[in-house]
Amino acid sequence: MSLLTTHFEILSFPFELTTNDKKFFTEFSELNSALASPANGRLPQIRYSVIKNTKYFCIRENGKLRNRWVHRWPLYLSVMMCVRDSLYQHLKEYLFLHSGAVAKGNNKAVLLPGPSGSGKSTLTLGLLNYGYQYLTDEVVVISLSDLRVLPFQRPIYIYGWQSTVSDDVGKHFKFYRFKERYENTVQPWQYAVPQRDAVLPKDSRCEVAWIIFPRYNETQKGSCLRPISKAEAAFKLIQNEWNMQCFSDYGLKLCAELVKKADCYQLLMGDLKEACELIEKLTGEAAVSVEPEILNNIWKRKVLL
Amino acid sequence: MQSLKKRPDLLIEEIEDEVVIYDPRTHRVHHLNPMASIIWELFDVCSSPKEIAKEIVDVLKTGSSTVEKDVQETLKQLQKKRLLE
């Protein structure tokens, strides 16, 4: 059995991955190309193995079985969930929020915090078409030293195989299509992985200038932005934290400081185009014309992530 | 007599004129609107709901029956959320 091993770092935290499945190894390296950096010679603190036996792919973390799968398609997501949990557990210098984030001009970030189904990934994807840079669609990383956002450019996980970004934006992403199989059903998904100019330097930092809490409402016709108080924003932000328990004594203060520096809004979203345009207007950037077809493709996704 | 004592282990942050409370026991967060925040602050200086209502009526020059009702309702909510001793 031939084993393939890669060493990589995410937020300067060293990992190792070993597998006997060449296809998964290639897929993992490609999907992680914008998020991870090559290891800096440090010993890995967490070792993952994905070993295919006659029946299953077994995922182990430091030798302990974490998951096993019949198919290859859940492997990347499954390993990355373990990676994410390890980061939350070990990195105390960052606050992690369940949030999408984009940036535009002057290194100013728009945070889009919300639970699954609120539409944050849909909105993140929509805003890329309006010239915003991709920071993350799921995990916002805030540095405790300066309360700035670091890029966490994991692949964007998109339902369907239609094009969801304009040709101009698409040039800077690579799309990986795959099928998810659940018993008798097959669903089309794709990953969008930032390439070239869309990959931000790992040490880049963005000031949190706007915090917008999206809430998808299928019965609503348009979209509207409502300013909310800083206290309400802090309350909502804490509800979307991943690791605040690590700093119970000053986590609340961190969120309070974050909202004090930003303009905070609730976005009721019934129409993606309108939602993107409202944000574009709010952040003071020139209007960009976007093909409605592209936004419709995003909006048509069955699941709002 | 209803307790007006805030739980000492709560983490409290005043942001503008509202209060956000983090409960380290349950890891739950609570947001008090401006009126509830005033009532919460007055727990430190008043010994009864009536006294709180009187303070608010004196400052806001508003009807006492509405304020008393608000104070009682807020107190009930805070007790329900187990934010008082």
Give a verbal description of the structure.
The complex is a heterodimer of chains A (305) and B (85). Chain A is of the alpha+beta class. Helices cover 26% and strands 35% of the residues of chain A. Chain A has helices at 22-31, 75-90, 120-128, 167-170, 230-239, 251-260, 272-282, 292-299; strands spanning 4-10, 13-19, 37-38, 46-52, 57-61, 64-69, 94-103, 108-113, 133-136, 139-143, 149-150, 156-159, 173-182, 185-194, 207-216, 223-227, 263-269. In chain B, helix 2 crosses helix 3 (64-80). With 85 residues, chain B is of the alpha+beta class. The two termini of chain B are 13 Å apart. Chain B has a 3-stranded antiparallel beta sheet. Classes of the chains: A alpha+beta (305), B alpha+beta (85). At the A-B interface, helix 5 and helix 6 of A face strand 1, strand 2 and strand 3 of B.
Q: What descriptors fit this protein?
A:
heterodimer, A: 305 residues, six-stranded mixed β-sheet, globular, B: 85 residues, alpha+beta, three-stranded antiparallel β-sheet, 3 strands
Radius of gyration of chain A: 19 Å
H/E series of chain B, N to C?
A: EEEHHH
Name the strands of the widest sheet of chain B in spatial order.
Answer: 1-2-3
Largest interface, by Cβ-Cβ below 8 angstroms: which chains and how many residues each?
Answer: A-B, 18 and 15 residues
Distance between the termini of chain A: 38 Å
Mean pLDDT of chain A: 91
The poorly predicted ranges of chain B are: none
Question: How many DSSP H or I helices of chain A?
Answer: 8
Described by strand count, sense and barrel closure, the largest sheet of chain B is: 3 strands, antiparallel
Q: Give the oligomer, counting copies of the same chain as homo and different chains as hetero.
A: heterodimer
Estimated helix fraction of chain B: 40-55%
- The number of strands of chain A is 17
Helix/strand-derived category of chain B reads alpha+beta
Q: If helices are DSSP runs of H or I spanning 4 or more residues, what is the number of helices of chain B?
A: 3
Secondary structural class of chain A: alpha+beta
Work out the strand percent of chain A.
35-45%
